[in-house]
Design a protein that fits this description.
Elements: E1 6-11, H1 13-16, H2 24-39, E2 43-48, H3 51-64, H4 69-90, E3 113-116, H5 125-136, E4 140-145, E5 150-151, E6 163-164, E7 166-167, H6 169-176, H7 190-199, E8 202-207, H8 211-218, E9 226-228
Parallel strand pairs: 1-2, 1-4, 2-3, 4-8, 7-9
Antiparallel strand pairs: 5-6, 8-9
Amino acid sequence: MIMATRIIISLGGSIIIPKTGFDPVFLKAFRAFILAEIKKGRTFLFIVGGGATCRMYQQALRTCTSIMDDDLDWMGIAATKINAEFVRLLFKDSAYKEVVANPTKKIRTTKPIIVASGYMPGNSSDFGAVTFAKTVGATDVINLSNIAYAYDKDPAIYNDARKIKKISWKDFRKIVGNTWEPGLNLPFDPVASREAEKLGLRVSILCGTDLTEVKKAISGRTFRGTRIF
């Protein structure tokens, strides 16, 4: 059950701007949902990913030039900053005054929302969420993306891929491996998974556009998605 003062959410870039473009109907509903939760006393820390925007720029660089992984990661981090600034402005009156980058820095604020971006090469915004959880003493991270479950293999490739409802870190890490690559598209990145296991964090993976299920997850109730522990 999620008991942290500030709910840590790794917010996939695909939720903010999917490949098809911004969805104002969803964004308005998401904004209203979060503001309603704030009125109940909840506070949030969003770590925003780069999503399709990040991967588009990275693929263009790979196609046009020979480029190092660290540079591709920096490109991805720049994409997370754009997405994070959008989220901050979406909640402007309720959000901390600027996008935070360093996940080891404790932010003192009375604002109910803090928005963060990517920080350093070598991992995704999932790792930032795990590090923020460590910094604020949270025991849970909620990962919101465009999928409802993690699978034992890529369902876009394998018809027999099985969705996972509950799984240990040991078994989950066998699925995602140990190696990070820029733009890697996994339910929870390998570096973040290793650190989360070390910290004993619980991670919930669910579809971020299904606000009914998101509400269940942040309330500590059973939801449609994957629990890693």
